[in-house]
Amino acid sequence: MSPLEVNRRSFLALLGAGTLVTLTAESAAAGTRSTTVFGAAADDPLGALIARRRIMLAGDGSAASVPELAGVLEDMSAKAAASWQAMVRPAASPGIWPDLPLAGVSGTTLSGNMGVTFNRIFDNALAYSTAGCTQHGDSALASDLADALRYLSTDIYRAGRSAVGNWWFWEIGVPRKAADILVLLHDVVPAEVRTALLAAARYFTPNPNWRGRGTSFAETGANRTDKSLSCALRGILDDRPDEIALARDALSDTVRGGRNSVFGYVTSGDGFYTDGSFVQHGYLPYVGTYGVVTLGGIAEILGLLGGSEWDVVDPNKSVILDAVEGAYAPFIWNGRMMDTVRGRAVSRQAAPDYVDGAGAMTAILLLAQGAGEPYRSRYLSLVKGWLQRSSEKQYGLPSQTVAKSLLVTSILGDDAVEPAPAPVYTKAFGDQDRLVHHRPDFSAVVNISSKRIGRYEWGNRENNVGWYQGDGLTFFYSPTDPGQFSADFWPTVDPYRLPGTTVTAEPRANGATDGTGIPRAFQAFGGGLALDDRWGIQGMDHLNHNRTLSARKSWFFLDDKVVCLGAAIASASGHEVFTTIDNRSFAVGDVPNVRTDNRNRRMAPDGEAVTVRRNVHIMGHGGYVFLKGENVSGEIDVRVVRRTGDWKTINSGSDTGGTDEPKTRDYVTVTHHHGTDPAGGGYAYMVLPNVKHSVTFTESDAPTVEVVANNDRAQMIRVAGEGLVLANFFAAAEAHGVTASGPCSVAVRTDAGRTTVAVSDPSRTQSVARVTLADAVGASVVEADAGVRVVSASPLTLEFALDGHGHSKRIVLG
Q1: Helix (H) or strand (E) run with residue 184 in it
Q2: Whose CA is closest to 675, among 712, 638, 635?
Q3: Residue 710 and which of 234, 247, 588, 805 are 20 to 30 A apart at CA?
Q4: Residue at 484 is within a domain
Q5: Count of other CB atoms within 10 angstroms of residue 113
Q6: Which of 680, 702, 724 is the C-terminal boundary of a domain?
Q7: What gap in Å lies between CA 253 and CA 266, rounded to an integer?
Q8: What would the mean pLDDT of 465-478 be, rounded to a whole number?
Q9: How confident is the model at residue 778 (pLDDT cuts 50, 70, 90)?
Q10: Number of folded domains in the chain?
């Protein structure tokens, strides 16, 4: 049997469709197996589930025969060797590792050090249990780990102790790691130690439905899923079938009639929305981190309990199955999870975008085998496409176990799976104020905020300088520079100069502190629409954190460009106000040639800024064309800036904090200066990602986009040759023959004798919006969404009954 065939068999064993894992003599011989647990008979269902979980964590032994995973096993071995050598042996106060004291410390330091300690023990236990690792089956390591767990169960993580510091470690992080450690070391850890650790987990998290030991705060989303998995493992390990059933039922929230079920849609707060949005912590798009945890946890529980008497049979599981393509896939770009949905995780040195992308992909692979058709084939096709387009190494995805890496080698080696092509569509998510725009040569997305969606999240000393991440931060992803936001971007970028934002130069304090928070925006208008899955509109009525700066901002997403407008920029802060058009990061010394106003420039780091009037082009990356329009004023310049920072400054969290090692990057910074305390400034520019300089110059000489309105009431563009008009109305107004009854986004396309109109209300302040088109073609209805009707034919007046969630309605007239 070839290594790839062994690997594929392992893949199917991991994801077996509804049957308990059956270990053949061959697979049992591949690693250290207990005749009690890993040879579990049919009349020992709990033993069989322990066997299944161990395979889900450590694989079935076949990884050692897969050449592509040799480097992964070497890395695991080296990490475990260094960690083991540094252990204090025998385990004693103040801690198991000198750099993680557990005695003589308190609060967040104790909880964080405890969490990292369990993480290190897990890594060592995984190396002990994984065939191909140097430590595999090493009895000395097993003895040291059992001794460490005895100390922890007696002195640190024990029932009855007060939970100090960050509650998450006591209720979620440690119970999850402890359970998996006990699975991996089931025949090594003494029964009394196992019992004590599980009793502590039960004490701090008695019921996965609730926070803490009470019943007043219901868990949602990722936290509910994490607690359910830990509870299920606890029940399996401690011979408590009632806890396995409790865990299964908590996913569906049977105690509250499904109110917080992970298999249900929500209309407010945390969870999945029908439009594909996923919100966590009440106010933030979070499918990229908490959503990945949710998906991974659900996939693992379904895989663990599938085919057993505790199988999850909730009829609404289709919510999760549909979410893969509706909620997750739109934000995965060539294997990377877009930072727009990663919240404070952007500040985590060990978890750049491709790590969360890897977590999502392996979760989807875990879910695939038991999902049935047509989901399974589509999932595998999506993941294979992402893997093949990824710029990161394909085998041994970062921060994923060998068992999950086996899934990757399996899918890449399966010729029957056709890789999905890169997406080309535009999709709006009204319930999380996001729109993603995928084109053949680039993808783009903007972070906006409103009364409903927060500016950014800080918490437990993470994302300490994320002040302006929700103030219009604009991401462009291009195959020419796939690592733009993962190559030390966040610790080195000027936090006052995030691309797309309009801010003041008022100094801000580093936010490193305990606790968590999501600063809310003040205004209602935030969102937009997508027209025919091809074009998009986003807008934001911007009022900054201390109400000293206001602006109306719009983004219009077209086939090969994004047009950005700003108007009514006013400030009384006493500080300079500026819009950062872009702040592109490059390795030191690798800044490409820059052209401004069609001229080559020799630009050195920290040299003089070059003033520009018409365009900027960064060779190999794209161009910026400055458009004419009302209220456009101020000076634009470009400069190259060398910046040095470190990850610890932006994240000093106890378990996710970065190092203080200096990181340096060179930035090409393009800035529109509005002066100090402007009274009505504005800007208008287009971004042309991944185009040649000739395209930039042609657009600059003869723009294909006309700015027809850019003021405090309306921002509108007209696209030559497309019959396309896109607009944001911030109040009742008329512009270029389009009249809106109130705040709304409007898209009008006239083509081949038909007029298509789409309308949404990003402010969610109107139940009905009326739009009048002075020059519309055709008045008979070809098709229309529910709630859309023609009020008048001359002039053409349309009425749109809206749903209060910022979703658009569409009508086609002929």
Answers
A1: helix 174-184
A2: 635
A3: 805
A4: yes
A5: 25
A6: 702
A7: 13
A8: 98
A9: low
A10: 2
Q: Is the pLDDT of residue 28 over 50?
A: no
Query: What's the one-letter identity of residue 731?
Result: A
- Residue pair 529/747 in contact (Cβ under 8 Å)? The answer is yes
Same domain, 508 and 547: yes
Answer yes or no: are the C-beta atoms of 664 and 643 closer than 8 Å. yes
- The amino acid occupying position 121 is I
**What are the pLDDT digits (tens) for 665-689?**
999 999 999 999 999 999 999 999 9
Kindly give the interhelix angle for 45-58 and 174-184, rounded to the nearest 10 degrees: 100
Q: How confident is the model at residue 777 (pLDDT cuts 50, 70, 90)?
A: low
- Strands 576-586 and 502-504, sheet pairing: antiparallel
Asked, for residue 408, whether it belongs to a domain, the answer is no
Instruction: Tell me, yes or no, whether 721 and 638 share the same domain.
Output: no
Among 702, 723, 745, the domain-final residue is 702
Confidence of residue 25 (pLDDT cuts 50, 70, 90): very low
User: From the candidates 136, 186, 281, 437, which is the catalytic residue?
Assistant: 281
CB of 569 closer than 8 Å to CB of 682: yes
For residue 510, the domain's CATH number is 2.70.98.10
User: pLDDT tens, 516-533?
Assistant: 999 999 999 999 999 999
In this structure, are 466 and 496 located in the same domain? Answer: yes
Task: State yes or no: is 186 an active-site residue.
Answer: no
**Does 649 share its domain with 731?**
no
Cβ atoms within 10 A of the Cβ of 372, count? Answer: 12
Our answer to whether residue 438 is catalytic in this structure is no
Based on its alpha-carbon atoms, the radius of gyration of the chain, rounded to whole angstroms, reads 28
Which range marks the domain in which residue 549 is found?
425-702
pLDDT digits (tens, 9 = 90+) for 32-52: 333 333 344 457 899 999 999
Rounded to an integer, the average pLDDT of 630-635 is 94
Question: Among residues 134, 152, 133, 156, which one has the least CA distance to residue 144?
Answer: 152
Is 477 within a domain?
A: yes
* Residues 562 and 444 sit within 8 Å (Cβ to Cβ): yes
Q: Residues 740, 635: one domain?
A: no
Same domain, 639 and 502: yes
Told to judge if 651 belongs to the known catalytic residues of this protein, a careful annotator would answer no
Is there a single domain that holds both residue 459 and residue 526? yes
| pTM score | 0.94
Adjacent-strand bridge partners of 748: 725, 757
SS (H, E, C) 139-164: HHHHHHHHHHHHHHHHHHCCCCCCCC
- Of the candidates 7, 209, 223, 651, the residue annotated as catalytic is 223
Residue entry with tokens 């657009």? 699
In a domain, 433, yes or no: yes
Q: CA 14, CA 51: separation in Å to the nearest integer?
A: 11
Cβ pair 802, 775 in contact under 8 A: no
Choosing from 128, 151, 273, 290, which is the catalytic residue?
290
Q: Are residues 770 and 695 in the same domain?
A: no
